[in-house]
Specification:
five-stranded mixed beta sheet, five-stranded parallel beta sheet, alpha/beta, 13 helices
Length: about 270
C-alpha cells in the first residue's frame, strides 16, 4: 500500500528544507535549492537541483519526486514544466507573517507531522508575542529603512515589515510593503529615503553583500539620523528574506537586538 504522505520531496527554496529538517523529516528530501544554507548540513547531504528562477529539470525528474515544493509566482515557469512532466507540485505564495505560519502548518500536515508542527509554531508565536510586549515599553520607536536591493533602491517585503513592527520599529515604507512584487517596491529616488529620515538602516541583499560604508557615502545621505549615528546594519538574506522558520526566529531576533540597542541609546 502506497504511503499517504510524500516520501520523495524536492524543495525549490530554502524555507521548506529548513522546516522539514526541524521536523525531523529530512529523509524525505531528495533535492534542494543551490541557495540553501540552512541547515548547513543540507548542502552536504542533498543534491542541488535548482536556483531560484531556474531548475535542472532532468536532474529533478531523475530523482523521481512524488512532491515538489516551491515558492512564489516567480517559480511559475518551473512549476508548469514539472506539472507537464507529470510531477505533483505545490507552490506557496506567502507574503505576511500569518501566511508564513499557515504555510509551515500545511507542510507539516503534508508529511504527517501536524501536531509536532503546531507545537513548534506555537513556540515561535510565543517568542514573537514576547518580543512585541518588550517593544511596547519603548518610549520612542525607531524609524527603519530596510533595503532589499540597492541599485535601484528597493524597500522590503511584507513579512519583514511586520517583523520590524514586532521587533519595535516602524517601517518608513509601509505602503510599499503591501506590494507583493519586488518591482512595485522600487523607490525611484534616494531623496525619498532621505526625506523619510530613518533612524536605522538595515540591508539584506540576495546574492550580494550589503556594505554599510557605501550606504553612508551616498550623496546627500550624511544628515540621515541612521548615517549620522552609525545605525546601519546587515542581516543576511538567508536569515530574513526566506519566508519560513529563519525569518520568524533568527531574523526577528536580530531585528529586535538592533531595536533594543537603539532604544537604549535614543529611546
Amino acid at each position: 500500500m502506497r504511503p499517504l504522505s510524500p516520501q520523495r520531496i524536492v524543495c525549490l527554496t530554502e524555507e521548506t528544507t529548513e522546516w522539514l529538517y526541524l521536523l525531523g523529516q529530512e529523509a524525505r528530501i531528495v533535492g534542494i535549492s543551490g541557495y540553501t544554507v540552512r541547515p548547513r548540513r543540507a548542502r552536504e547531504e542533498k543534491p542541488k537541483v535548482s536556483a531560484f528562477l531556474s531548475a535542472k529539470m532532468d536532474k529533478i525528474l531523475a530523482l523521481k519526486p512524488d512532491c515538489v515544493l516551491g515558492f512564489s509566482d516567480l517559480q511559475a515557469d518551473i512549476a508548469a514544466s514539472l506539472i507537464k512532466a507529470g510531477v505533483q507540485v505545490t507552490v506557496f505564495n506567502q507574503r505576511s507573517v500569518d501566511e508564513i505560519f499557515s504555510v509551515l502548518y500545511q507542510v507539516a500536515a503534508m508529511v504527517g507531522q501536524a501536531e509536532q508542527g503546531l507545537g513548534k509554531l506555537a513556540a515561535m508565536r510565543a517568542d514573537l508575542d514576547a518580543m512585541a510586549q518588550r517593544s511596547a515599553a519603548f518610549k520612542r520607536r525607531p524609524r527603519v529603512y530596510f533595503e532589499e536591493w540597492d541599485e535601484p533602491h528597493m524597500s522590503t517585503i511584507r513579512w519583514v515589515s511586520e517583523l520590524i513592527t514586532i521587533a519595535g520599529g516602524d517601517d518608513i515604507f509601509p505602503e510599499l510593503a503591501l506590494m507583493p512584487m519586488g518591482r512595485d517596491r522600487i523607490i525611484a529616488s534616494g531623496d525619498t529615503i532621505v526625506e523619510r529620515s530613518p533612524d536605522i538602516i538595515i540591508g539584506s541583499l540576495c546574492g550580494k553583500k550589503f556594505r554599510p560604508e557605501k550606504v553612508a557615502a551616498r550623496p546627500g545621505w550624511q544628515d540621515i539620523p541612521a548615517v549620522r549615528n552609525g545605525q546601519i546594519f546587515e542581516i543576511k538574506s538567508a536569515d530574513i528574506l526566506q519566508p519560513g522558520p529563519a525569518a520568524l526566529t533568527d531574523g526577528a531576533a536580530q531585528l529586535h537586538r538592533i531595536m533594543l540597542d537603539w532604544a537604549g541609546r535614543h529611546g
